[in-house]
Amino acid sequence: MKRLNQLFQKNEKILSIYFTAGYPHLNSSKEIIIELEKNGVDLIEIGIPYSDPLADGPIIQKSSQIALENGMSLEFLLHELKDIRAEVDIPLVLMGYFNSVMQFGIEQLFKRMNEIGLDGIILPDMLIEVYEKEFCELFEEYDIKSIFLITPSTPEDRIRRIDKMSKSFIYMVSSASTTGVRETYDDNSLAYFKRIKSMNLKAPILTGFGISSKQHFDQVCEYSDGGIIGSAFIKSFKKEVPIQQSISSFVSSVKK
Asked: What CATH number does residue 62 fall under?
């Protein structure tokens, strides 16, 4: 899948949007993806709902709970997206937890992802040592990119190691806390952003966790190739507002 590599050849601020599959409705994932592309989003991260999402804040946790209650599963999601490439061209990445992927069957998942045209997967709790020893060849066989995360506490030698292994982009977690909407980035976060930028890593970097406005997005784009918005986007859905309208309003508020 060359879509991810081609994406970062653009000399622009990359806007990636995360949403939870099966939220707000069981069958809304495909509609959300199509509308996000129509409104100029560059990359989409599709969250696999999980009953115990340790890295997620209350907004994404609640969306996962509702999605599971709606009947969402990994099998349902893959079936829903089977023809998505007939309508959408931008990169699509799954994001979830290692346990649920292993329960499904990692090779079976990669085979289905390849058939559908999904470009990569983010598994925050998969150790890079496990990736290297057990799954690297499977990722390569099915041309699925593994996106690794770094945090303010990740040592420099590990960051360099992740950079060396990365074949798409690095997910720079903005803080050591869970996902969620924040008011601003403090001096510690900005010092961390500057430190990572000064390392001149070969892999592109997208910053996530806490981006909720155009101001935040522009701020992280000073230090990385773009930003990932999740909680604020999910929070923007209102029962009384059609999905298309919610998406158009939210994306324009960030990209205006």
From this structure: 3.20.20.70
